[in-house]
Design a protein that fits this description.
- This protein is mainly alpha-helical.
- It is about 65% helix and about 0% strand.
Length: about 325
């Protein structure tokens, strides 16, 4: 398939730029935080197009699934949307396999929004211990299932994570987009940086670290495996994760810095990369940026309502929110 031209995105880009006005910005987030009741906070979501009169999680899941469905009809290449759907497929695959290994159903853990219907995947696995998905996913499922039979759930997760990122890299390459390649490369770097910091904080299992690090980042897995955690800031100094790496180096010891601040900095680096798409009048960047903005929005809503339920102060909840796309 030939790569679509930027002008092929004129119509959908104009539509998405107009829809940005309904995204939950800082002012609307503050209204949710300061609302006297959850019902009052939910009104903000209704104003922004989320379904009301249904459980919050169902409303968030429906919003994501409906957006993917609408955009797949509007974009010149559906693979652009599928790049965002891949992680939900692998979330569902993990949930199905782990539930199967425990002899239960995964219904409550499945998410809408993947390329494949989650209920169908579960039914296929329950009936034949197979999932009708293309490679490399099918091979990864079989390998993960074998590891679960061997009572190695961590190994199963690593196999599926590697397959998930491999699919994202392959799809970005197939789309022939430097912007999307950069996005997936940044996701890989952030995942690897998190892995190194967590491993160091737990005492450093070099064998596990070697299995967990993903290929395809701007910093090689070999470099990260050999590096001392205190050198992370130096390794990432020239890239978008420089601030995150500084915080990661501090958080890499049990008595070190804040893991929460480090995690937030990793996410904020991705937001900064994609927020640049707002300056592009039309093209794949506009679609990618909007898809990410909605995903970020859903995460923020979960954070707000979880904090409210836990009785946390507005300032505490606000400190856990990531930088906003809008």
């Amino acid at each position: 398939m030939s790569r679509p031209k930027d002008t092929d995105y004129l119509s959908v880009s104009a539509r998405l730029h107009a829809m940005e006005n309904r995204l939950i910005d800082r002012e609307k987030t503050q209204r949710m935080l300061e609302a006297q009741t959850d019902e009052e906070a939910r009104k903000v979501l209704t104003e922004c197009g989320y379904a009301d009169q249904i459980p919050l999680e169902e409303a968030l899941s429906r919003r994501r699934a409906e957006l993917y469905g609408e955009l797949k009809k509007a974009v010149p290449d559906v693979r652009l949307v599928e790049l965002f759907q891949i992680k939900y497929d692998y979330h569902n695959i993990k949930a199905i396999l782990k539930a199967w290994s425990r002899g239960i159903a995964a219904d409550d853990l499945l998410l809408e929004g993947g390329r494949y219907d989650a209920g169908m995947l579960q039914s296929q696995w329950q009936q034949s211990q197979q999932m009708e998905i293309p490679e490399p996913g099918r091979q990864a499922v079989d390998r993960a299932a074998a590891l679960l039979r061997e009572k190695d759930p961590q190994g199963a997760d690593l196999v599926l994570d590697a397959a998930c990122y491999a699919e994202m890299h392959a799809l970005a390459d197939a789309l022939k987009s430097d912007f999307l390649r950069g996005y997936v490369r940044l996701l890989t770097d952030a995942a690897n940086l998190r892995t190194v910091v967590r491993a160091a904080r737990c005492g450093g299992d070099t064998a596990l670290l070697a299995k967990a690090l993903l290929p395809g980042g701007s910093v090689s897995a070999h470099t990260l495996q050999a590096a001392e955690p205190v050198k992370l800031a130096e390794i990432f100094c020239a890239g978008p994760l420089s601030r995150a790496a500084e915080l990661g180096a501090a958080a890499a010891t049990p008595a070190g810095g804040s893991l929460t601040a480090f995690e937030k900095a990793c996410d904020d680096a991705v937001t900064a990369y994609l927020a640049a798409a707002r300056r592009v009048p039309f093209g794949e960047q506009t679609v990618t940026g909007y898809l990410y903005a909605v995903e970020q929005e859903i995460t923020a809503v979960r954070t707000v309502f979880a904090g409210r339920q836990a009785g946390l102060d507005v300032e505490v909840i606000g400190s856990r929110l990531r930088d906003s796309y809008v």
